[in-house]
Predict the structure.
Amino acid sequence: MFSRLPRRFFITSTLSLAAGFFLSCSAFAASEKTLKLGIIPGPEEQLAIIAKDIAKTKGIDVQLVHFQDYNLPNEALVGKDIDANAIQHKPFLDAQIKTRGYKLTVLGNTWVEPLGYYSHKVPSIDKLPDGATIGIQNDTSNRGRALNLLEKHGLIGFKKDHPALPSLADIVDNPHHFKFIEMDAAQLARSLDDLSMSCINTNFVIAAGIDPKTVLIQEDRMNNPYANIIAVRQGEENLPEMKVLLESFHSDAVRKAMLDKFHGAILPAW
């Protein structure tokens, strides 16, 4: 019976199907939303790429924008050069909002990376000599975390009513006469040959090929107040594309990669 249908019918039907296919593809491309996400190169980027791939299946094209300096992504977000960033924890964001007046907010948590001290010269924290030179971060929040960790282990003491994120000026008890060297967080892993020990963020520990198990002292992994976040401009946290972005970061694929690749050095914070 098919042989009796005119050849023109098959040509017309084929053309109609093809036209419908290309129209559907064009409609999908037109409806796809692009988001520029600020990220720091390293293990965090590896996880962001997985989230990016998941978002793509949901109609969101996430373009990763790389930064080397923690102080720049929030400025870029305020200036609308990017649409979100995943480079910081909430105390860092709060500090920048307070000092710079940024109109930014938290979209949601991503992961937690416990901060710790490492050394090429000292085998254990109880072997740290008097007068040791200690490298710490030069930004407000990470410097405060580094000092709080030393205070928790009884190595230094703070004045009464010190801020939650103390500075060197808040130290009133330094019985071992430690000398502190402040530098950019990204440079601390390179300082281990020159200093007694340095406080290094987990992402830089992994990027530098340092074994996380060699840490001398480290923040608690569970209930850590320094969970990393995705930051967005105020008023944009409820946009549908932002919800998809957060869901993509909270996916099982990102969780699995976190545990498989980094063996507990980076943990889910949702």
